[in-house]
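Every protein is a chain of amino acids, and every chain bends into a shape of its own. The fold becomes a row of whole numbers, each drawn from a learned catalogue of backbone shapes. The protein below has been through that process, and both of its lines are reproduced in full.
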Amino acid sequence: MFPNYQSLKRQNGSMLLVALFVIIVLGALTISMMQAGSDNTRTTVFEVLGMRALNAANSGVEQALGEVIGVGGSGQCSNVSANMDLSSIAGLKGCTVILSCSEVNIAATGFIHYTVTGDATCAAGEFVAERSVSVEARERQ
């Protein structure tokens, strides 16, 4: 009817070990959850910078094509600006674009073929994203 005193004496301190084990396991779970949250934040920053870089490269290529074959365009790649700093545009802060243009005149077809490439780099703190866009266009002579 009464608990054995010797049995209770041997169990002295076992609850302390169980409590310590639970605290350690919960601490490890908390640390892993915090690390996962930090990784998600880094992934989101890279995705946003990647999209900014892609949009910057597209913007640069579109402007270059406008300078070459757009309304009032010169029809020459030599008039394309080599570098564009887009930092003054709110959505493209920290972005730069390096543009290149080449043209090939194919007399047999009567077309001039242009290749415009924009290499964009966007940076925010320690994060850097780069994207490249290349567009080919042709214009009748």
Summary: Residues 14-69 form the longest helix (56 residues). Strands lie at 83-85, 95-106, 111-124, 127-140.
